[in-house]
Design goal:
Helices cover about 60% and strands about 0% of the residues. The protein is an all-alpha fold.
């Protein structure tokens, strides 16, 4: 999962870095590719947060007890949407 997110970010950044150097037609293709990668990245990230939300839509990071315990506190995935 981390590799997928990292690869998509690298593709977006790569296109963004050369966007100004491209011809108009190529620029349109690059923008379309950036939009596609961003859509895929958004879906991936949403699936990550969807796993651990409770019925009220709150994630474990929104629970004061979890926040007080710090990042070493175990996260329990509920097997909900996205798992």
């Amino acid at each position: 999962m981390v590799d997928d997110v990292s690869n998509r970010l690298q593709v977006v950044l790569g296109y963004a870095q050369i966007l100004h150097e491209l011809e108009e037609g190529e620029r349109g293709d690059a923008v379309a590719a950036i939009e596609q990668e961003c859509a895929e990245l958004r879906a991936t990230l949403r699936s990550l947060t969807g796993w651990s939300r409770d019925e009220a839509g709150r994630g474990p990071w929104q629970d004061p007890a979890w926040r007080d315990a710090g990042p070493s506190a175990p996260v329990v995935f509920d097997g909900g949407e996205g798992s």
